[in-house]
Known about the structure:
The complex is a heterodimer of chains A (333) and B (383). With 333 residues, chain A is mostly helical. Chain A has helices spanning 2-8, 14-19, 22-30, 33-53, 56-81, 85-88, 119-155, 157-172, 175-185, 190-203, 205-218, 221-228, 233-269, 279-288, 302-326. In chain A, helix 7 crosses helix 11, helix 10 crosses helix 13 and helix 13 packs parallel to helix 14. The longest helix of chain A has 37 residues, at 119-155. Chain A is globular and about 75 Å long. Chain A starts with a helix and ends in a 7-residue tail after the last helix. Mean pLDDT of chain A is 83; it is low at 1-16. Chain B has 383 residues and is mainly α. Chain B has a domain at 100-323. The interface between A and B is large, with 43 and 51 residues.
Amino acid sequence: MTTNKRQNAPAIIPSELTTLDPQERAQLRKQALWRVRLRLMGQSLHANWRLFTENPIGLIGLSIIVFYGCLALAHPLLMGRVWSPSIYHPVTGFNPLLAHPSPPSAQHWLGTDPFGRDILSQLMYSTSSEFILGMVAALLTVTIGTAIGAIAAYYGGWVDTLFMRLADLVITLPSLVLLIVLSGIFELNLPRLAIIIGILSGFGGTTIIIKSQALTIKVRTYVEAARVAGGSHAHIIMRHIIPNLLPLTFLYMMFTVTDAIFAEAVLSYFGLLNVRMSWGMMIYTTQSTGYLLNMETWWLIVPSGLSITLLCAAFYLVGRAMDEVINPRLRKR
Amino acid sequence: MFRFIIRRLMQIMLTFLLFLALSYVLIEAMPGDFANVFLQDSKLTLEQRNAIRASLGLDRPPQERFFIYMGALLRGDLGISFQYYPRRVIDVIVERAPRTLMLFISSTVVSFYVGFFAGKVLAWRRGRVLEYVTTVGGVTLYTVFTPWFGLMMIWLFAFTLGWFPIGKFITPSVWRRAPVEANLVFNWMLLTALGISVLIVVWLWLTRRMDGRRRGVARWAGVGALLVAVLAVWLPSGLGRYALNILHHLALPILTLTLISFAGTMLLTRNSMLETLREDYITTARAKGLPDHVIRDKHAARNAMLPVVTSLVFSLAFALSGGVITEGVFSWPGMGEVLLQSAVTQDIPMMMGALIFTGIFALLAHLVADILYAFLDPRIRYA
């Protein structure tokens, strides 16, 4: 009995079940439930991956992300085996044989900064922290945004009003000025910045969008059916509303990553962030040593500026391509 | 609908009060106060700094100051700025707000126009190389690291090519003998721009029922006549060259902001167009044998405009808070710069004043966008 009831509950993607022919469905019934789910999930993942790869925009974004991922992974290996830490360390390294800042050469592929540190090493060292920052902020955002969005849409009434006005409050505060004020109140480092951005974005703009999507799910017939069948509020929210919100939340994860990397860069650029090395920090170093508008020393500012732009754009492009996978009205067929 | 608006207005007032309190608490929570700005000056003794503190009322407990501030606010008194002493906060805002509004409203309108046009074409030519190149390029500009991009633009157009001045609002050498203040000229420019836009919209609306070729001619002639009339008023007034100087300073920031933000509108329009293109009436229009550009511009683009218009209203509303970064890079003396400076120097009255204006604007805009949505799309109704 329980198995049967669970069968009627939403499998991962309900439409996948209905497309199977009766014979195959009968066969599926005999297997263990988790196996069926795993297989269906695999199928839908495969279908979605096919849709995603049809779009070159997503592939461009993905390849940029993979490229930077490789950079991040390669840095510890290079430091351990190839580069001597006294010369190539991103923060304390110094090459005594050159006048600094020195242009790109065989020894320093992207040149050195005014303090004699290798730019390529700084760039690669910072990549992993940018990734972690983006991921933590994005995970926090979607967790908060999805939970609040689903609850506000499902219960409506004063719960909805409370959270929506809270969202108004958050988006009314100019975020950059808020971060500057917060950096005065306590020391901002990367984990704290990730948490603050995650909370701000989770209670602010993302919630509003996720809630409006949850409203359209709430009125679907399968939610009604679950209610008639005696499903509790928690059950309906956890098993019916949130799983159907997940594609959209995944999309907004991508946009939050972009926001987080951008915010880190801007705050470091203003010199308000307590980090040892980051892409924004590299631009700040260029600015504070007076090389900012000197285009003859382009290698000081172009690698970091371009990296921030490219990685932000990559996550945004992947988000855009995912939008076309998620939203059937945007598909080609 | 009426009840919905009333209820939302009540909620907005409550949210606004909370917003004020939260802002005040946050500013107070920063360590130090305005007197610390003078720490650099070694001649200033501790007693003198304490005297500054006492004269600004900073020696009283924060909660007491908050209630004094709120009481004054209810009487319509925004107080006196610390850093621009002895100017009143309201005067500083009246001086700065038009500059920010001009910069951000014009760049928002231009980027929406460009974005809408590009998005329309993009959706129509789906799957071509053009689409991918434009999307990747647009998104790269959209997510570009703004300070870096701003500096690159200054370096290229102002420093190397010398087409535009490097930052700032006016050129002092031109203005030395000017008969009037820059702000007066600027406010007249703002009014002119506003007047022109209203008249153009009215003219387009009046000519909407004309057919085909005649309408095109009438529209262009009307807009041309309007521009000539504006020039005819401005040139003999003797203020023309001053206005031109300001416009010259305005051009590069507007260009930069447009390049940065058009992709947002472009992608929004594209998605909205793609959804519209699946509708039955597009198939009908094709079956009727209508030319492609008619289907695209009249049947699809107009119906795809709804989310774009709503998003335009939203962007316009946030124009007042401006861009802290853009204004910083171009040293444009607007609201964003005031906000940043008052946050850094802990100029409490100035910061609260600026936040009050941007906050009211943003909260009301949210309401207007909601109402507009229901007004433009008959399927949405508020109970």
